[in-house]
Amino acid sequence: MNELDRGRMEASKEKKYIDIAEVILITLDTRGNIKLLNKKGYDVLEYEEGELLSKNWFETCIPECNREEVKDVFKNLIRGMAESSEFYENVIVTKNGRKKIIAWHNSLLCDENGKINGTISSGEDVTERKKIEQKLIESEEKFRTIAEETEIGIIIIQDGLLKYSNKAIDAISGYSQERRNEWTERNFIDLIIHEDSDFFTWNKVNDLVKGNIDTGEKLPFRIRTGEGDIKWIELTAKSIKYLGKEAVMFTILDISDKKKNRTGTKKNK
C-alpha cells in the first residue's frame, strides 16, 4: 500500500470517528470559513453533507442580529484569549430558517510551529432544554406572585434546605425571612414543633419533610414561634417539581383562633 492510499484510509477512518459523535464537531480557519463539519452538524443545520465546506460560518449560519457578537467571541479565541471564549452559547440559523441554541466548547488549532491556524468546536443543541428552563422560570414567577398574596403560609424544602417561604410565614412562625434563610429541614422541624408534642407528630412531620408521605392529609399540631408564643397550625404537604427537581411544598394555616373558639364552646356547655 502506497502513502497516498494509506493517507486516504486514515482520513476515512477519522471521518467515521467524527461522524458517529453525538455532538456537532466543526473546525474553522482564522477567517471563519468551515474546514470540517460532521454528520451531526449537518443534521442540526439541515444542510446536505459537504454543502457547507469552505462557506463562512458567520455569514451562513449565524443570524444577522447576533453576527457581530459571535464574531467578537471568535476573534478573542483566535487572539489566544481562550478563557473568555472556551465555553459559549449562541443562536444559529438552519438552512430552513429555524433558529437553534447551541452550547459550544471551543479550542484552538495550531500548526507544527505553534502558530494558531483555526479553531475546533464541539456543540450541543440545547434549544429544547432552554425552552423548558424558560417555562420553569415563568411558572416560578407566577407561583411567587400568587404565593405572596395569600395568607396561607407556604414553604418549599429541597435537597434538605428551605428553598422558598412566603410572607405569610413571617406572621405564622414569628421567624423573619433572614432567619428562615438559614433553616435546613432539621431546623424546620426542631424550631417550629412545640417541644411537648407527641412522638406521632414528630414522626409524621419528619416523614413529610423527607417527602415520604404525600396524601394531602391535614395535620394539626402546636408550634412555638420565634417570639416564644404557642400556636396551633394545620399543615399539609405535597411532593412537587421545583425548578425541575423533586421538592416538598408545605401549606401552613394558623388555626389558633379556631381552637380557642372550640375550647370556649366546650366550656360554655
What does this protein look like?
It is built from ten helices and ten strands. It has two domains: 3-125, Beta-Lactamase (2-Layer Sandwich); 134-268, PAS domain (Beta-Lactamase, 2-Layer Sandwich), CATH 3.30.450. The strands form two sheets. A five-stranded antiparallel beta sheet has the order 2-1-5-4-3, with helices on both faces. A five-stranded antiparallel beta sheet has the order 7-6-10-9-8, with helices on both faces. The protein has 269 residues and is an alpha+beta fold. It has helices at 3-19, 39-45, 57-61, 67-78, 127-147, 168-173, 177-180, 185-192, 199-209, 256-268, and strands spanning 24-28, 34-37, 87-93, 99-110, 116-125, 153-158, 161-165, 219-224, 230-242, 245-254. The longest helix has 21 residues, at 127-147.
